Amino acid sequence: MRCGTTSLFDCLKDHPQVSPSRRKEVHFFDLQFARGRGWYRRQFAPLRRLPDGTDSRPLESSPYYMFHPAVPARVREVVPDARIVFLLRDPVERAVSHFRKNVRDGREPLPFAEALAAEEDRLAGTAERLLADPGHVSPAHQYFSYKARGHYADQLLQWQRHFPSGQLLALDAGRMFADPAATLAELLPFLGLDPWQPPRFEVRNASRTDAPDDASAIRGLEHHFEPHQRRLHDLIGWCPRREVAARAA
Q1: CA dist 145 to 2, 91, 95, 190, 215, Å?
Q2: Which residues contact 185 (CB under 8 A, 6 or more apart)?
Q3: Which of left, alpha, beta for 11 (phi over 0: left; psi -120 to 50: alpha)?
Q4: Range of the domain at 191
Q5: CATH classification at residue 38
Q6: What is the pLDDT of residues 115-125, one digit of tens each?
Q7: Domain count of the chain?
Q8: Nearest CA to 66 among 49, 43, 40, 89?
Q9: Closest CA to 91 of 116, 121, 110
Q10: Cα dist. 45→48, 55, 95, 144 in Å?
Q11: pLDDT at position 205
């Protein structure tokens, strides 16, 4: 969430071998799983037979899939051969962007520091309930997870328990926006798609990257994420860096 998935989806949906979902965020494996596989199939146009005799590849992008604790097992059950892409952004910037969107959408009544302080209580027991009750939906878990969604290593390890590493790919969102051609050169072979470049790579659903006027809260977030970033680096060999700092350098 807030890591560039809209921009990447809008790019990939135009690839000649792709059949995208009718809307970007299908939310089948997190919010609509009880509707069944038939409902999921209907969210895509029929696959096309390509000149090489293969079918076009269905594509969807629902960022909550990465964080929802029940989703990896559900995806493994329904589409075990899926190729899964994760976009990772510096977790401080991601949390700020997440908060700004919640405020803009009228979901967040608290100031930034108070929202961060309230997160533990807001999320208490939500993951356990989502795992125990397949029909349960938790707006708190989905929307108020400013810090928890930045614990990338925890989420990737959860996916690795259900999928081999060859079906999982983590991309740096900052690198994608800085050099989309290089990102596509890495991504398309992973997806089994032919080399291709869009006419242009457009930034969609962009948000401000400046932090709220609460330097203490930002420093607290930086300290909070330090061990999580180290774990992520140990897991995948890199971690996303601050975009603002990179521009200043």
Answers
A1: 12, 12, 8, 30, 20
A2: 195
A3: alpha
A4: 5-248
A5: 3.40.50.300
A6: 999 999 999 99
A7: 1
A8: 89
A9: 116
A10: 9, 12, 34, 33
A11: 56
> The pTM is what?
0.90
β-strand 168-172 against 57-59: which pairing, if any?
unpaired
Q: What angle do CA 102, 1, 218 make, to 5 degrees?
A: 65
**What's the one-letter identity of residue 202?**
E
pLDDT, tens digit (0-9, with 9 covering 90-100), for 97-111: 999 999 999 999 999
**Mean model confidence pLDDT for the chain:** 91
What is d(CA 114, CA 103) in angstroms, rounded to the nearest whole number?
13
